[in-house]
Amino acid sequence: MNLQLSIGITNNPRTWPILDGTVKPDGIDLVPTILHPSELFWRQLHFAEFAVSEMSCSSFMIVTGQGDPRFVGIPIYTTRRFYHTHILVRRDARIETPADLKGKRVGVPEYQQTAALWARGVLQHEFGVDPKDVEFWMERTPDKSHGGATGFQPPPGVTVNQIPADKSLGSMLLAGELDAALHYLSGNNLVDRSRADLINHPDFKYLFPDSVAEGIRYYRKTGIYPINHQAVVRRDIYEKEPWVAQNILKAFIDANEVANARRQQHVDYHLAAGLMSGDAKTPLVRHGLAANRKVIETIAQYSLEQGLTKRLIKIDELYAPNVLES
Fold first, then answer.
1. pLDDT tens for residues 262-279?
2. Helices (H), 175-292
3. Domain made up of 3-80+226-323: CATH architecture
4. Which of 67, 121, 152, 176 is the most exposed place for a label (fewest CB within 10 A)?
């Protein structure tokens, strides 16, 4: 009889082969709950609801550094993006280059979230914009934030204001009370309050007019395609059935191959893949540590630099011992 495990998962092309049953992990029947990532991570961090789940890379590093033993990592990476290329600015804010963000009021759903961590890291290392140079405004309140589960406090020297409960990141941007958004989320979920479509609003633009070109530039220089989500298994499950980590990893590797074969990706992903790798048929997204060690080590370094973790988190602290050679 197969082991039945609940899984909290997002709906995207990399997870579809798992969700539609095209790929099934050996010896395991997964019972999926499909959620928006903001809500999924909040629920797992606060309540550890799911035996297996996608998880914020940043939050997982934070709880690992705090000695929270509830989760064991699996090197499955379901979403990636060049997050700095999606910084949204008001057209009247006189922000034409990354350096123009200095001294500006910049909104973010949550300071510790992975997308914001990556964007700040790139701004600092590529463009000389330190987090201390910016006045941040955070939408999520402690009871509806990932940081509420990790005891988040603004890093020393960094200004992080709380957006009032009767406002949202979107409403403050529309009112001109904020100049930019490091990351903007308007999807309907239990955590994020913003609903306004600012991506198509005439008063807003992306800081980088050609996001694909900037992503390719960054990748060619660094070799990094930033990871946002990874997978975790609850430690109580792993300690009883350590083979679960290997079998789930194998299933997601197989699902990734199915997704590549289906070509169910965005056009800009395929364009970027071809330009970055020199061959659009070469998989740009792969699971396992061998293909992703540099990315994970980089985000760990950014987390330390930005004061989210108090020490450098090592690879072997994050992942199940039996998948470290993956």
1. 764 554 455 555 556 555
2. 211-222, 235-240, 243-262, 267-277
3. 3-Layer(aba) Sandwich (3.40)
4. 67
